[in-house]
Amino acid sequence: MKKWIAGLAGILLAVTLAGCSSGDSATVANMNGAKITKQEYYDEMKTSSVGGEATLRNMILAKALDQQYGKKVTTKQVTKQYNAVKKSYGTSFASALEQNGLTTKSFKEEIRTSLLSEVALKDLKKVTQKQLDTQWKSYEPKITVQHILVAKKAKAEDIIKLLAKDNTEKNFNALAKKYSTDTGTATSGGKIAAFDNTDTSLDSDFKTAAFKLKQGEYTTTPVKTTYGYHVIRSIKNPGKGKESDHTKELKEQLYTTWESDSTVMTSVMKQVLEKANVSIKDKDLSDVLDVYTSTSSSTASN
Known about the structure:
Elements: H1 8-19, E1 27-31, E2 34-37, H2 38-47, H3 52-69, H4 75-89, H5 93-99, H6 104-124, H7 129-138, E3 144-150, H8 153-165, H9 169-179, H10 204-212, E4 223-225, E5 228-236, H11 247-259, H12 262-276, E6 278-280, H13 298-301
Antiparallel strand pairs: 1-2, 1-6, 3-5, 4-5
Helix pairs in contact: 3-6, 3-12, 4-6, 6-12, 7-11
């Protein structure tokens, strides 16, 4: 699925169109009663940022996923995710779309295909008890903490002494606003968005110290990271509890990990394509789906 080297797209398009019949309705690929025509392929190529074969492969996958799981992804879901991304980019959203060769329509189509892929993954790869047990070993529930970041260890120790006299969220908020060098959180009392063990944005030492705190507790020694020294206070920590109480969260963590695993997703897409019964009518593109033939479907079913 990765971008092809710039310049190949035009060559591939020329080869492709030469292999198709002259009619705009000529079929490039068939699948379970549906088809991709020469005109549809050509129209997609005009706005695609990837090569000819990758474009057709994406079109086939999108159509196969829609055939098999289309009813399980709603327009409302697509719009919700689209709006979330748009909000996160703010005023730079339009330029971000343009830089990635996307329009509102094509971006929503990509979101829909992504959501359909998630549905396919959960349908075709089931979580085993062994996998749940392994995930449980590193599992930590979502917690919320606040922190104060300073450059010197001595300053962090001074702040800890102040907390020993008044360990309240209100006092911590005041101390964070006064001393924290983390400008992104200082004005909000050092509060950080809730995170669990799958978070990759926070320093590992920071997370380890935070997970050890019970609700309302704070670190009694400074926590050193590459950013400086932290004083961390737990706002909400529900506790790890029993594995059986967190089956849903464990499954979601596993599926989130698998969504980023190319081997797993390639295997899932292979099963989707096998079920779609795809037939490539253009001889120059007959091997367009070969990328999936070497992947055993057992990866997705085990």
